[in-house]
Amino acid sequence: QVQLVESGGGSVQSGGSLRLSCAASGFTVIPRCMGWFRQATGKEREGVAIIDIYDGTTYADSVKGRFTISKDNAKNTLYLQMNSLTPEDTAMYYCAAGYSPSSNDRAFAYWGQGTQVTVSS
């Protein structure tokens, strides 16, 4: 059974940093793509950062230069280092995995339960 379990969310002041982790288990075939998505209250879910084992990493324009996605294959864990956080980064953050080369959230078959990030000004 595939599981994605996020951790590392919390509350931080503007300008602060957080590191999210996503522990993956149960995959019989390594997903091509793993990524982080977020959904703020009243807004649609958006892609934040994706790592594709063939095509590398992509970031939303709003987080470029501030967020870094990485993966530790030995630990089956995906990370999102978030620096210079602003209140606009406040959202529920989800880890996702899929086999299609796409940044569209509908291409991701597996999802974690989410971890809340709240940034205060």
Stretches with pLDDT under 50, minimum 5 residues:
none
Number of helices: 0
* SSE run: EEEEEEEEEEE
Helix content: under 10%
Shape: globular
Cα gyration radius (Å): 13 Å
How does the helix and strand content classify structurally? mainly beta
Whole-number average pLDDT? 96
Count the E strands. 11
Please give the alpha-carbon distance between the first and last residues.
Answer: 40 Å
Which percent range describes the beta-strand content? over 45%
Task: Describe the sheet with the most strands.
Answer: 7 strands, mixed
Provide a compact summary of the structure.
The chain is 0% helix and 52% strand. It is mostly beta strands and 121 residues long. The mean pLDDT is 96.
Explain this structure.
The structure is a single chain. The mean pLDDT is 96. The protein starts with a strand and ends with a strand. By secondary structure, it is mostly beta strands. 0% of the residues lie in helices and 52% in strands. Strands 2, 4, 5, 6, 9, 10 and 11 form a seven-stranded mixed sheet that branches. Strands 1-3-8-7 form a four-stranded antiparallel sheet, with no helix packed on it. The protein contains no helices and eleven strands.
